[in-house]
Amino acid sequence: MADAGAVGAVGRADEAGEDGGGIVSLDRRVLAVAGVVFVVLMALSSRYGFHRDELYFLDCARHLQASYVDQPALAPLLARASLSLFGVSATGLRLWSALAAAGTVVVGGLTAREFGGARRAQLLAAIATGTMPVLLGSGHVANTTPYEVLAWAAIALVVARIGRTGDTRWWLAAGALVGIGSEFNHLAAIFGTVLLAAVLLGPARRTMADRRLLAGAAIAVLLVLPDLWWQARHGWAMFAMTRALNGEHGGAGNILTWIVGQLGMSCLAMAVLWVVGLRFLWRSGRPLWRCLVTAYAVLFVLFAVTSGAQVYYLAGLYVCLLAAGAVGLDEWLHSRPDRLRSLMVGTAISAALSAVIVLPVLPPSDVAWTYDTSAISGETLGWPQLVGTVGRVWTELPAGQRANATIFAADYAEAGAINELGRNAGLPTAAGAQNTDWWWGPGNAHATTVVAVAPGPDYAPGYAAHLRRYFRHVRVAATLSNPEGVHTIEWGGHVYVCTGPRRPWGTIWPELRNYA
Fold it and tell me: Against a cut of 0.85, is the pTM above it?
């Protein structure tokens, strides 16, 4: 295998294509790979239904504010743009995530270029990025993840460029990317902070830490001020939310899940690339490139301990590592065509297998077995049926009772489904107790009848008993299911009709808040 000394050799491999900066121009096939990823994602964008996070984000889009309990403002802002342009459309909403995925592929190719990669290394980096299961899966779902992956990849690209050129003016761009990324997902701020510490506390400080680095950090802080302002006015809800998530997904029991999960961040056949990429960057002799390895190591341990079940938290950094590995292995792969051929065959097979899990390729009834490993099969099905069930229960109430009734959803996705898919079905706006939904209030604070929707017993055990703490009469009016028979979070859940409140509904509301 080639070591870090291959950087110069690879760069010279295509001297005819060098630009004025001494590195080869971007291989146009990188754009073709990005185009294929975009076309595939858009072709599948209308399959199944909305993801539960998407329903919540559409709800957030109708309540635009400076931040939210569980994410900053930019993803809901894009959802608002989608509503304005396309209405309540899964394809319209997923346009943004598909564009982010395609952009990430281009960033992968550009990063290989910064590491000195010839056109063939850039193409390999683009293919490795474009076949990442996490990229394809997140590209199908317009939550924060596709934008987070792009932001992390773009930050690493700029760091790679600074490390190659020594031009610290790029720290301003890095700071802007950290700030923008942090307005999509708070994890970008953690990445930026760890990178800053790695630079200031390591050998890179002697050559790369100057006033532009501090100016870049200041830009990042300025960009996140709206988020900080909102959090300060809402009791720093993001910290309570983080504690709840860490309690659910962290701990020693999930460390092994985290470690194994990292093998699935890239297409399985391409895992060798990011491993070689770590070695390539560490042996490069460039202190700033080494900072990327340091950041990876620190974040690997941090997330393993605090968020082990959330295996995708480092996904964006793998784009950089795959690009570095593509450069580091370039000469070794092309010295024996059979090696490259085997890698491509392995990539095609493993990418096809993972696509069945992370993309809606097969009929829904054929992918129920992927529920425990895929958000696509488990979290995009059954929403029209849920809304229809709630609608039937609501319309069966006597008119006089409906006048003093409200709909309450225990889960943000259920509230989002009712509010978005039931908007034209005569249903009132549902109040939700989870995350930011709770801050929007109880609906009719004087309601004497509450139609409550709750997930299945695996996710909300004993919910009827919970409701009886607040109501004298709680009856099951309907049971939730879906025609595909997939045991989603809502499967086996119930719609309850609750009457005889023990206290006014508005005074009960503060006790129902749930961060998860």
Answer: yes
